[in-house]
Amino acid sequence: MKLSKLFFLPLLALFTISSMSASFPAEKLKAFGGWELLGKKKVNYGLDRDEIMVTAKEGLFSKLHLSVKRAPINLHKLRIHFANGQTQNVEIRKNIAKGGKTRVIDITGGKRVIKKVVMWYDTKNRAKTRAVVQVFGKH
Asked: So where are the chain's domains?
């Protein structure tokens, strides 16, 4: 009897932990309508260029979009860097209001691993609040 308890309890603990970790990403994705947060950056004032390093550990993405929080920005263009060394340039040329987002951007060449997103933008924020830009990807 003691041997079976010693064997059973670690298995139960392992099963509980693995089932909790397996369900978390699905809940996270469901909360964002199937979009996964890949990274974010607090941007500077004026004309600038920033990189958002993708923090998703794994996964191939077919689409992405950016959302803007706290203050508006004028987004000029993006360069998406993939894990295989290739890039994709995307012209945006859009003023994005606080709480707004870009159009959905299709990844060329099928599903790919995204390494980073480089963006060129300017801000004309009189309130002196720095915008936060978030990159979301869809599998």
From this structure: 1-31, 34-138
